[in-house]
């Protein structure tokens, strides 16, 4: 979704840029971001983000209620890169809107960068940076001009705005394009410029809502190089929503959200390890008959499926099963054209917890060489 629609009467800089459905009283822009005074010392909290029992409901059609977020608990450590992975409509943007104090939670608590989203929303908004799903850059203005306007909205003095703009452009690798109109920049450059803009006021936590949606793989990789550099060099805390599996793999921890609920949380490795079994896929001369044969070979608790992608099943140590399955199939006169065993992917994790796939591409096993029809292929990744 796009974050909630705005309210022009309120002068809070973040609200003016993003909009909000429930607006908190405004306060003057803090001296900490103006560069004119010494910043107030605020002790660093243990967690950059801490959420308990977060609920956000909207009035739905014909008097119904849409429960966008249904009781989320999570903690994100300082300096952590955390992914919120889920399909369209899962509640990712709504959660970000609440965590950035742009929408008021229906129930629950959240503390972001040391401030409570309900009781100190203006402080939350000052301490976070946001990258929205849809570009808010002015294509006719140069990179520098876009940054300058944003910096001034945040109350930075002209001088400080200039120096911060130079710094963030440097970090984004865009110094040589600072005088280019935004309309002439590539999609990846624009995204990096938007990230740079979100960093102008030195936020403690950066929220990125679907940061690489619409970008080609090369631009996506560039954006991620930039985000990794931010994390490694500046210790930024990054909260990323995405429905791209490979994007979530870039993060230290992932929460999988589905229909407003977190269904699994952990490091990518731990989430996949918890699934355990490898996926074995066989392409044969007769997949329906092959399925019956395979079912007779594997333990009875193993589900064996046959569809347009071939015969598939989940077993521990998948590659060790392939020769046995091939031998059994050959005994029944069924030729095996291809065989593959792959460790669990994040999509398998998603499927395990929701019964649905996030990835629409099919798993294609590598064809076996004609001379060795049962050659085993072990993959290190792949999709369902
Ligand atoms: N302002 C709103 N009013 C009513 N319903 C809303 C509003 N914002 C979001 N919703 C509903 O809440 C649910 C969660 O939406 P949300 O945008 O948070 O999901 P998402 O995971 O970010 O999806 P996407 O990736 O498509 O943006 C959806 O059913 C959506 O239609």
Protein model, in words:
This protein is of the alpha/beta class. The chain folds into 2 domains: 13-266, 3-Layer(aba) Sandwich (Rossmann fold), CATH 3.40.50.300; 275-354, Alpha-Beta Plaits (2-Layer Sandwich), CATH 3.30.70. The chain contains 12 helices and 14 strands. The strands form 3 sheets. It has a 6-stranded mixed beta sheet with strand order 6-7-8-3-9-10, sandwiched between helices. Strands 2-1-4-5 form a 4-stranded antiparallel beta sheet, with helices on one face. It has a 4-stranded antiparallel beta sheet with strand order 12-13-11-14, with helices on one face. Strand 9 and strand 10 (261-266) form a beta hairpin. Helix 10 packs across helix 11 (318-331). The chain is elongated. Residues 1, 4, 58, 66, 68, 86, 88-94, 243 line the site of adenosine-5'-triphosphate.
What labels describe this entry?
2 domains; four-stranded antiparallel β-sheet; 14 strands; elongated; disordered N terminus; binds adenosine-5'-triphosphate; ATP binding; nucleotide-binding; DrrA; membrane; cell membrane
Summarize, please.
By secondary structure, the chain is of the alpha/beta class. 32% of the residues lie in helices and 23% in strands.
Write the layout of secondary structure elements.
Blueprint lengths: L12 H6 L28 E13 L5 E13 L3 E5 L6 H8 L7 E6 L2 E2 L4 H7 E4 L11 H11 L4 H14 L15 H12 L6 E5 L7 H18 L2 E6 L2 H5 L3 E6 L2 E6 L1 H8 L2 E7 L2 H11 L6 E4 L2 E6 L2 H14 L4 E7 L3 H9 L30
Parallel strand pairs: 3-8, 3-9, 6-7, 7-8
Antiparallel strand pairs: 1-2, 1-4, 4-5, 9-10, 11-13, 11-14, 12-13
Bound molecules: adenosine-5'-triphosphate.
The site of adenosine-5'-triphosphate has 14 residues, from strand 2 and helix 2.
């Amino acid at each position: 979704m796009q974050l909630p629609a705005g309210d022009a009467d309120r002068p809070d800089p973040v609200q003016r840029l993003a909009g909000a459905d429930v607006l908190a009283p405004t306060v003057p822009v803090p001296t900490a971001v103006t560069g004119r005074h010494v910043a107030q010392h605020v002790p660093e909290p243990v967690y950059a983000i801490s959420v308990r029992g977060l609920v956000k409901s909207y009035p739905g059609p014909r008097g119904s209620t849409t429960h966008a977020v249904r009781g989320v608990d999570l903690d994100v450590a300082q300096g952590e890169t955390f992914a919120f992975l889920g399909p369209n409509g899962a509640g990712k943007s709504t959660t970000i809107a609440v965590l950035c104090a742009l929408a008021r939670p229906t129930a629950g608590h959240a503390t972001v960068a040391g401030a409570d989203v309900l009781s100190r929303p203006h402080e939350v908004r000052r301490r976070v940076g946001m990258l929205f799903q849809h570009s808010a850059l002015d294509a006719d203005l140069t990179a520098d001009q876009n940054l300058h306007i944003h910096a001034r909205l945040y109350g930075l003095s002209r001088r400080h705005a200039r120096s911060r703009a130079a710094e963030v452009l440097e970090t984004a690798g865009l110094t040589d394009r600072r005088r280019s109109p935004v309309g002439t920049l590539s999609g990846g450059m624009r995204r990096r410029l938007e990230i740079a803009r979100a960093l102008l006021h030195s936020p403690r936590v950066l929220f990125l809502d679907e940061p690489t949606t619409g970008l080609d793989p090369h631009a996506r990789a560039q954006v991620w190089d930039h985000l990794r550099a931010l994390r490694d060099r500046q210790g930024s805390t990054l909260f990323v929503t995405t429905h791209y599996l490979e994007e979530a793999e870039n993060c230290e921890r992932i929460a999988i959200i589905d229909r407003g609920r977190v269904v699994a949380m952990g490091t990518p490795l731990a989430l996949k390890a918890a699934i355990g079994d490898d996926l074995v896929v066989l392409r044969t001369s007769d997949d329906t008959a092959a399925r019956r044969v395979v079912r007779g070979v594997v333990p009875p608790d193993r589900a064996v499926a046959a569809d347009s992608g071939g015969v598939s099943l989940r077993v521990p140590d998948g590659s060790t099963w392939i020769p046995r399955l091939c031998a059994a199939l050959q005994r029944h006169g069924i030729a095996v054209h291809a065989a593959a065993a792959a460790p669990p992917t994040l999509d398998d994790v998603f499927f395990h917890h929701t019964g649905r796939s996030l990835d629409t591409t099919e798993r294609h096993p590598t064809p076996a060489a004609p001379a060795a029809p049962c050659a085993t292929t072990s993959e290190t990744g792949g999709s369902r």
